[in-house]
Specification:
The complex is a heterodimer of chains A (659) and B (890).
Chain A (H helix, E strand, L loop, with lengths): L2 E4 L9 E5 L2 E5 L20 H4 L17 E4 L2 E4 L4 E2 L14 E3 L9 H7 L5 E4 L1 H20 L12 H4 L4 H5 L7 E2 L3 H8 L2 E3 L6 E3 L3 E7 L7 E6 L4 E5 L22 E4 L10 H17 L4 E4 L5 H15 L7 E4 L3 H10 L6 H7 L8 H6 L3 E4 L5 H5 L5 E4 L9 H8 L6 E4 L6 H5 L8 E4 L8 H11 L3 E5 L24 E3 L4 E3 L9 E3 L1 H6 L3 E4 L2 E3 L4 E6 L2 E6 L10 H8 L17 H10 L5 E5 L3 E6 L4 E6 L2 E5 L4 H17 L1
Parallel strand pairs in A: 3-7, 7-8, 8-10, 14-15, 15-22, 16-19, 16-20, 17-18, 17-19, 20-21, 22-23, 25-29
Antiparallel strand pairs in A: 1-2, 1-24, 2-3, 4-5, 6-9, 11-12, 12-13, 13-14, 26-27, 28-29, 30-31, 31-32, 32-33
Chain B lengths: L2 H15 L10 H14 L4 H4 L2 H11 L5 H14 L3 H9 L3 H4 L2 H6 L6 H14 L3 H9 L3 H7 L5 H17 L14 E3 L5 E3 L2 H17 L8 H17 L2 H21 L5 H21 L2 H6 L8 H11 L5 H14 L5 H19 L13 H10 L1 H20 L9 H15 L4 H4 L12 H8 L3 H14 L9 H13 L5 H17 L8 H14 L5 H16 L11 H11 L5 H21 L5 H16 L3 H18 L9 H19 L4 H19 L9 H7 L2 H18 L1 H9 L4 H18 L6 H7 L2 E4 L3 H10 L3 H10 L14 E4 H7 L2 H9 L4 H4 L1 H16 L7 H7 L1
Antiparallel strand pairs in B: 1-2, 3-4
Helix pairs in contact in B: 1-4, 1-47, 2-5, 2-47, 5-9, 9-12, 10-13, 12-14, 13-15, 14-16, 15-16, 15-18, 16-18, 16-19, 19-20, 19-22, 20-22, 20-23, 22-23, 22-26, 23-26, 26-28, 27-28, 27-29, 28-30, 30-31, 30-32, 31-32, 32-34, 33-34, 33-35, 34-35, 34-36, 35-36, 35-39, 36-38, 36-39, 36-40, 38-41, 39-40, ...
Classes of the chains: A alpha/beta (659), B mainly alpha (890).
Family (chain A): Belongs to the metallo-beta-lactamase superfamily. RNA-metabolizing metallo-beta-lactamase-like family. INTS9 subfamily.
InterPro entries (chain A): Beta_Casp, Integrator_9su, IntS9-like_C, Metallo-B-lactamas, RibonucZ/Hydroxyglut_hydro
Subcellular location (chain A): Cytoplasm; Nucleus
Chain lengths: 659, 890
């Protein structure tokens, strides 16, 4: 049985478990961070505004969670360390997972929760950039959280009775008891120590049963799709992929061909926002703000789209006369991120790869740094405060605006309408992200840049690779809720895709029809094939089937232990062995007319022939015997008359082999 | 004809007749033929002028081994010489014509295979067929059949030439369409004295051709489609230009076949078929008006194709099954503008509106459309993406025309069509059609709509088409009612990050057009104004220079749109800083556009004579910087144009006192523009600079006698006594501004347009200020001198004046106050302007400059010489053959 357990309902942060040929494979373990939007921001420096927010009191005054819930501009926020929504852990025993395949660094953020707290003993497979940058992202997250520790942990609001009475999104939040605070650095290190590195197209054998292999997916540095195949079945797992020529190696599409099942996740979250248009929008809004004397804040992750943004700006700043405007990149891992991106040559697109052989770095941000146009700092403390010049452009995290240095800039710049915040990361609704900062004078521009496949591209891709079945999150099978008229923003396939949601268990719709079996040479030697039609030979074999590590081998039947030698036996043995001609092999159907003639020759004359759906029934009236002739079988039904049955069988065999 | 050419021609004929000798290049024969054609058209007899041609023709055609190119040339030349009756007669006397056009003979010689030869045969005959004798020869030689065969020749050029020829025969020899010309065998003189005839030959030609048309019009099988296509083209050509008898005859013959073809419903033939039917229809109506009742009465009723029959054909065409063909047929009908045919117009309109009705869900066809049997097949057609886009684009292109049709042919008010186009634009950009559009839309969304909508979402082609249609729809009746919605949609387009650069450009155009339709901008709400301001600010920072350019251009256009009552859409306070910023743009086109746009926004204040603001002064100094430093030509040209428009617009109110500071700034600028512009590397900048110089001359001398440009007017207004003083001081003024230096440097410029313009201006100036007879006034004017630098153009001018080192001292004294600036070779001198103007040989220079630079090269003499030289080179093996030719090519 091939089963797919769906542990996450988030289409771009998937976590699925595939049971296939006695292996249990977890495909990605994304962490749904949207839950943090329900929490108050963690300011780096004391924020009088945030600390003065009124506590939330229910309308009738009956409910007062003074310490836990604060109100801001009509919304209620939890005043506590932000918590994340983990993949489902009740659906199956996660300690049985043999391996975890990671497709990109965004889809591994839940890894420590799985590897450290479920009894997991297997291996994690990922590419080198995925591991390195994934570590940076985790490090940044931990750093953001630990640098502003909050002693208090709010739990009262999670009480079902209380939650029911809360307003807005808090009321509808699901599984709140399963929400967890961020992991710690030791947990990260331990989790990542279980990662085994793989390269594109490298084949990894899992218990001899299946082979897994990562393919370039074109989305981010080292991002991959996975092929999981046995000798006769192939499952493709497509996660965040991109056909745009940005910095990573282009997507390998051809290897996805001939899949029995293709699991499709990680399509663009912004199907209506074209990345090129958004990039243009980003640049013009940035230039417009700077020209008017304002500052630009870009909340972002420390890796990924930021490389493309910097590259785009590199070309743009000259033409827009922004040459003197400083660009700041602030992240605890800013330096590593900028440097690592330059050394992953083999994971870059061809264009950038070829630069590695020239004395120039693949990404132009190196030049921006050299010319002092781009400066990076680990936080707003220290050197940054000395160098800080306005107007400027600041890239910093976290895109949720709940923690990280970005919180400080929101407090600093939010009051002036000259400043602009430009959202480029598509993971969070920008209105929700801004909610605890209202009222806000700062201008907001939303240009989400999501380079992942859109519906148009994916339908072209599927037409190209032609999988037999497609499995995808249910969100992809209908148009987005807000744009119900856009029937172009959904997957339409024949046969229709199998949708899944959080906690679904799907039985994948393909049957195992073949199994590969090895045969030992000496046994193979003893076979006597006979050709039944040109190019096809058959041989009967009697052997012992030996199965180990999911490999099946036919071995010769061990000789029976020699019987105690009796005199009589010895004499028989001394006789020269009679070489019997090999029996003719049986194949094909019994020709009725000829068979009847043969029967008659042997004295069976009273035969009543009856036609059935599958063949014929011959009734030998004198012998009170039935012979059923069917396409793939012949049955002789006679009452306790073994000699007759044998005779009839031999007669039938004669006819069959001669046919 | 040039005597020299006549003397060379026999030699050339000899060369050509001796085939095999090389020609300078393969265009020589064409050039030669062009020359002969020119001579014939000028009215001379070719054989009289060049008697050697007759010998040449007979020599060449007797030799079937001649080069096919030369033979083809000879055929065409023969036709040309036989175009007059006299020439025809002389060729006949030498019995050359039969030889020349003897098709079988050429076929046997294997020359007919060459398409170049066949085309020579057709064109030769066509040139000849200009008089009845030629027609007689043509018909008697049985040339009609081969010509009909050539109509479907494998070579497209031959086939097309044959088609043209067939049309020529029928149309050229048809009897003039005046009363009483119906009878056969009548001759009459038309206005040109050319004899037209309705001879037996013509009748038989008409009969043969129309029989062929009738027989071959309907394709027997698919492979014959091309023939039908050719015939339809021919028919359309004929029916559009044929007079009544021929028209009747043709239609009568082919009507049945046309009907058969219409019913056959062959998609590829729809458009040509429609052309034929429409050509027929347009004539049928026209005839009734042209002809007297008397003539109509004379016609035998049953020999005419009745209008009902044509109408029926048209009806069938507007009822074919294939939706795409139907749309094309309806579009063709509407393009012809048969608005008097109300029934068919209404039908065509419905057909063209149907796709829009389906996609947008606007009830363009009224509520009772489900009964329309075409709807379902159209929906099917529209579900296919490629055909959907092409069909919708055809419909969109025709919407402006549709709104102009009489209201009784329209199924809905014209405003609704504008609303539908807007709704389509919304769908294209991915926003919902029903949620945002007004009134009736939501109720009648037909089924299948969403599947069709999907095909147009994000289609740049449809967007562009719809925006063009929207621009044109601004002049439709009742369009003004939709203006606020138009603005809203256009704003969405301007703001949309996915809008393509061309789409943005077209949106701007549409916005400007709609604004000029309704100068009352009170409909534009404040949020819309603010939105536009934001969008424009964003777009001038766009990454794509094309977008920045269109935006800057738009700002200029906006300034030119008259606005009444309400404040302008974007105030100067908003636009000027943006344009100033754009002067720094990295792309030269944007800088140039910004300069032009600035000039447009300042037009009004220049005309008012308003005092210059600090900002304008800054702009001016920035512009002068651009003129002297910009590496690209476009911005520099734009700067000169900016000062031209400032200068010309200012002059109308130069007396205003508030503008004195601005006038002095302008004078300063003009001086630097003249000096920098005339020294520019770009010839267009120099030409623009001369334009500015011309304006200055106009201003200084427009009242003077002899100032060539508005002589008649000035003669009346000026008074001779003030002439001399005025001229002297004005001349000194223009010298001081640097006009004369600019003109003189232009005169010796190596770019012909610059030299020409400067020369013309200098001639005008000379005629105005230097009277031919020396008198007192002349003496005064002669004292005005100008400086010639010791380098560059100054040296060049001095050379022309014949000044050597020793002359300089002499010139010095004439120059009066001037004198030599010491400094060796580079020393500049002063010369009297009048002296210079009279001794520069301006008239000869003008003559030389007026001729195009390749005039020597293109003369017939040069052509004949080339041919002779090439053949000489060929016959002398010592010289390397072909070398000349190679040089010639470059």
């Amino acid at each position: 049985m091939k089963l797919l357990y769906c542990l996450s309902g988030h289409p771009t942060l998937p976590c699925n478990v595939l049971k296939f040929k006695s292996t249990t494979i977890m495909l990605d373990c994304g962490l749904d961070t949207t839950s943090v939007l329900n929490f108050l921001p963690l300011p780096l420096v004391h924020s009088p505004r945030l600390s003065k927010l009124p506590s939330w009191v229910s309308k009738d005054g009956s409910l007062n969670l003074e310490k836990e819930l604060k109100e801001c501009a009509g919304r209620v926020f939890v005043d506590s360390q932000p918590e994340f929504c983990l993949p489902e852990r009740e659906l199956l025993d996660l300690s049985t997972v043999d391996v975890i395949l990671v497709s990109n660094y965004h889809c591994m953020m839940a890894l420590p929760y799985i590897t450290e707290h479920t009894g997991f003993t297997g291996t994690v497979y990922a590419t080198e950039p995925t591991l390195t940058i994934g570590r940076l992202l985790m490090e940044e997250l931990v750093n953001f959280m630990e640098r502003v520790p909050k002693a208090q942990s709010a739990t009262c609001w999670k009480n079902k009775e209380i939650q029911r009475m809360l307003p807005g999104p808090l009321k509808d939040a699901v599984d709140v008891w399963a929400w967890k605070r961020s992991y710690s650095m030791p947990e990260v290190n331990s989790a990542l120590s279980k990662v085994q590195l793989v390269g594109y197209s490298q084949k990894v054998e899992l218990f001899g049963a299946v082979q897994v292999s990562p393919l370039s997916s074109g989305y981010s540095l080292g991002s991959s799709n996975w092929i999981i195949q046995s000798h006769h079945e192939k499952v493709s797992y497509v996660s965040g992929s991109s056909l745009l020529t940005t910095h990573p190696q282009p997507m390998d599409q051809s290897s996805l061909k001939n899949s029995d099942v293709l699991i499709l996740t990680g399509l663009t979250q912004m199907p209506t926002a074209n990345p090129d248009g958004m990039l243009g929008e980003f640049c013009s809004n940035l230039a417009m703000t700077i020209r008017a004397g304002g500052n630009v804040l870009v909340p972002c992750y420390p890796s990924g789209v930021i490389y493309d943004l910097l590259e785009c700006l590199y070309q743009f700043i000259e033409s827009a006369n922004l040459g003197t405007t400083p660009f700041y990149f602030i992240s605890p891992v800013a330096n590593s991120s900028l440097e690592f991106s330059q050394i992953f040559a083999e994971w870059l697109c061809h264009n950038k790869q070829s630069k590695v052989y020239l004395p120039e770095p693949p990404f132009p941000h190196a030049e921006l740094i050299q010319t002092n146009k781009l400066k990076h700092y680990s936080s707003i403390h220290g050197d940054f405060s000395i160098e800080f010049r306005q107007p400027c452009v600041v890239f910093t995290g976290h895109p949720s605006l709940r923690f990280g240095d970005v919180v400080h800039f929101m407090e600093l710049w939010g009051k002036s309408s000259l400043n602009t915040i430009i959202f480029t990361e598509p993971d969070f609704s920008y209105l929700d992200a801004l909610a605890p900062y209202q009222p806000l004078a700062m201008k907001c521009v939303y240009c989400p840049i999501d380079t992942r496949l859109n519906f148009h591209q994916v339908s072209k891709l599927l037409k190209e690779v032609q999988p037999v079945h497609v499995v995808c999150p249910e969100q992809y099978t209908q148009p987005p809720l807000t744009q119900s008229h856009r029937s172009d923003l959904m997957l339409e396939l024949q046969p229709p895709p199998m949708p899944y949601r959080r906690c679904s268990v799907l039985s994948l719709p393909f049957r195992r029809r073949y199994e590969r079996v090895y045969i030992l040479p000496e046994l193979a030697n003893s076979l006597v094939p006979s050709e039944i039609k040109p190019g096809v030979s058959l041989a009967t074999v009697s052997a012992v089937l030996h199965s180990k590590d999911n490999k099946h081998t036919l071995q010769s039947v061990p000789k029976p232990p020699p019987a105690p030698l009796s005199k009589k036996r010895k004499r028989v043995l001394e006789e020269p062995p009679v070489l019997l001609a090999p029996k003719p092999l049986l194949s094909g159907a019994v020709p009725l007319e000829a068979f009847l003639a043969t029967l008659q020759k042997h004295g069976i004359t009273e035969v009543k022939v009856e036609e059935t759906a599958d063949g014929h029934i011959l009734h030998l009236q004198a012998e009170d015997t039935l012979i059923q002739l069917e396409e793939d079988g012949t049955h002789i039904v006679c009452d306790n008359n073994e000699p007759l049955r044998t005779t009839l069988r031999d007669l039938g065999e004669q006819r069959e082999s001669s046919s | 004809m040039d005597a020299e050419c006549v003397s060379l021609l026999p030699g050339v004929c000899e060369v050509l007749a001796a085939s095999g000798r090389s020609l300078p290049d393969d265009t020589s024969l064409e050039k030669l033929l062009d020359w002969f054609t020119g001579l014939t058209e000028a009215g001379g007899s070719l054989l009289d002028a060049c008697p050697c041609l007759l010998d040449f023709i007979s020599t060449v055609v007797h030799n079937t081994a001649s080069d096919p190119g030369v033979l083809s040339f000879t055929l065409r030349l023969t036709g040309l010489t036989a175009a007059t009756e006299d020439g025809f007669q002389r060729l006949q006397e030498r019995s050359v014509l039969n030889q020349v056009f003897h098709r079988q003979r050429w076929q046997e010689a294997g020359l007919w295979e060459d398409p170049c030869f066949r085309i020579g045969w057709i064109q030769g005959l066509r040139s000849m067929l200009r008089h009845p004798k030629a027609l007689g020869f043509f018909v008697q030689s049985d040339f009609i059949d081969p010509l009909l065969q050539l109509q479907t020749d494998a070579s497209l050029f031959v086939a097309s030439a044959a088609n043209q020829m067939l049309a020529h025969i029928l149309l050229f020899f048809q009897p003039a369409s005046s009363p009483g010309c119906n009878g056969a065998d009548e001759k009459e003189e038309d206005g040109d004295g050319r004899t037209r005839t309705t001879s037996a030959e013509y009748t038989s030609a008409v009969a043969a051709i129309s029989e062929y048309l009738k027989a071959s019009l309907v394709p027997q099988k698919y492979t014959k489609l091309r023939q039908s296509l050719q015939i339809l083209k021919l028919l359309a050509l004929l029916l559009a230009r044929a007079g009544p008898p021929l028209w009747d005859k043709l239609l009568q013959t082919v009507a049945d076949s046309l009907e058969e073809l219409v019913t056959a419903g062959c998609g590829q033939l729809t458009l040509p078929l429609m052309d034929v039917i429409l050509a027929a229809c347009s004539r049928s109506g026209a005839d009734e008006r042209v002809l007297d009742q008397h003539v109509l009465d004379q016609r035998v009723p049953d020999q005419r194709v009745p209008d009902q029959r044509l109408s029926r054909l048209l009806s069938s065409m507007l009822n074919v099954d294939e939706p795409a063909d139907l749309v094309h047929a309806a579009a063709a009908f509407l393009r012809r503008g048969h608005h008097s045919d109300i029934v068919h117009t209404a039908r065509a309109v419905r057909i063209l509106l149907l796709p829009l009705h389906i996609v947008t869900g606007q009830s363009l066809l009224g509520t009772n459309t489900t009964a329309d049997e075409r709807q379902s097949s159209m929906v099917e057609q529209l579900k296919c993406k490629s055909s959907c886009i092409s069909v919708i684009c055809v419909c969109l292109t025709n919407t402006p025309q549709i709104t102009l049709t009489p209201s009784d042919s329209l199924p809905c008010p014209p405003q609704l069509i504008v609303i539908a186009v807007l709704s389509l634009l919304r769908i294209c950009s991915g926003s919902s059609s029903s949620s945002s559009s007004s009134s009736s839309s939501s109720s009648s969304s037909p089924t299948g709509c969403s599947e069709v909508c999907r095909n147009v979402i994000g289609s740049g082609k449809v967007q562009k088409c719809a925006l063009e249609a929207l621009t044109a729809l601004s002049s439709s009746p009742g369009a003004k009612d939709a203006i606020s919605e138009v603005f809203t949609v256009l704003m969405q387009y301007l703001d949309n990050p996915d809008s393509d650069a061309t789409v943005l450009h077209k949106s701007y155009q549409a916005l400007v057009k709609w604004m000029s339709v309704s100068p009352d901008l009170s409909v534009v709400t404040d949020p819309l104004r603010r939105g536009l301001e934001e969008v424009v600010k964003k777009r001038v920072c766009d990454m794509r220079w094309e977008v920045r350019d269109s935006t800057v251009e738009f700002l200029g256009h906006l300034a030119g749109v008259p606005v009444t009552g309400t404040p302008a859409l974007l105030g100067v306070r908003c636009t000027t800083p943006l344009l100033k910023e754009a002067l720094q743009d990295t792309e030269s086109y944007v800088r140039a556009s910004a300069i032009s746009a600035l000039a447009k926004t300042l037009t009004h204040s220049w005309q008012q004579g308003a005092a210059l603001s600090q900002e304008e002064t800054e702009i001016v100094s920035r512009l002068l910087e651009i003129l002297s430093q910009d590496t690209e030509g476009f911005p520099r040209r734009a700067v000169v144009r900016y000062f031209i428009s400032w200068f010309s617009l200012r002059s109308s109110s130069s007396s205003s006192s508030s503008s004195s500071s601005s006038a002095s700034l302008l004078t300063q600028c003009v001086r630097s523009v003249l000096s920098q512009g005339s020294a520019d590397l770009d010839w267009e900048v120099k030409v623009h600079t001369l334009e500015l110089a011309e304006l200055l001359l106009d201003e200084a001398f427009s009242g003077h006698r002899g100032y060539g440009k508005d002589g008649a007017a000035s003669d009346r207004t000026c008074t001779p006594p003030t002439h001399a003083e005025g001229a002297e001081s004005q001349l000194a003024g223009v010298v001081e501004l640097g006009v004369i230096s600019a003109l003189l440097s232009g005169l010796v410029d190596c770019d012909r347009p610059v030299g020409l313009r400067a020369c013309r201006l200098l001639v005008t100036l000379r005629d105005a200020v230097c009277p031919p007879s020396p008198d007192a006034t002349a003496a005064a004017v002669a004292t005005v001198s100008c400086e010639l630098p010791g380098w560059g153009w100054g040296q060049e001018v001095r050379k022309t004046l014949g000044m050597k080192g020793s002359d300089i001292a002499a010139e010095e004294s004439i120059g009066g106050g001037g004198g030599v600036n010491e400094g060796g070779d580079g020393a500049s001198v002063h010369v009297s302007v009048c002296e210079a103007l009279t001794s520069l040989g301006l008239d000869e220079r003008l003559k030389v400059l007026t001729r195009s630079s390749d005039h020597v090269h293109n003369s017939p003499l040069s052509l004949l010489q080339d041919i002779l030289t090439a053949s000489a080179a060929h016959t002398h093996p010592d010289t390397q053959p072909g070398q000349e030719v190679i040089v010639d090519c470059y």
